[in-house]
Design a protein that fits this description.
The chain is α+β, with helices and mostly antiparallel strands and 111 residues long. It has helices spanning 48-54, 65-75, 78-89, 93-96, 104-107, and strands spanning 3-9, 12-17, 30-35, 40-41, 46-47, 58-59. A hairpin with a 2-residue loop joins β1 (3-9) and β2. The protein is globular, with a radius of gyration of 13 Å.
Length: 111
């Protein structure tokens, strides 16, 4: 799975692309909020910091990430997972503008 579970709050999970969150200390990155209750994405991609400021999310610990990856794979349809990945890989410019820090792979598409 190319998605990485990052934060959780009740039935909601924030996920990002593995390639954007390989380092332990990432300033910001695009994430999508997933509702595990109904198996859907709840929002377009947005900067993780901007979402964390509004919600009551807690980090998913390193040893929990594989468990949450399995839950996401089980709860979401393959079509939904593909759409989430596509949205994170090619986000609209409005999503990039929500980032505090723009990763190199997105910096050329935002100009």
């Amino acid at each position: 799975m190319t998605l990485k579970p990052l934060y959780r709050s009740e039935n909601r999970i924030l996920v990002g692309l593995m390639k954007d969150f390989q380092e332990l200390c990432v300033l910001d990155g695009l994430v999508i909020e997933i509702d595990l209750g109904n198996g859907t994405s709840m929002s377009p991609p947005a900067g993780g910091i901007s979402i964390l400021k509004k919600g009551s999310y807690i980090p998913i610990r390193q040893h929990e990430k594989s468990e949450y990856s399995k839950i996401i794979s089980r709860k979401l349809k393959k079509r939904t997972l593909r759409k989430i990945i596509a949205d994170l890989e090619s986000p609209p410019s409005e999503s990039i503008e929500t980032l505090v820090w723009v990763p190199e792979r997105l910096s050329s598409s935002s100009t």
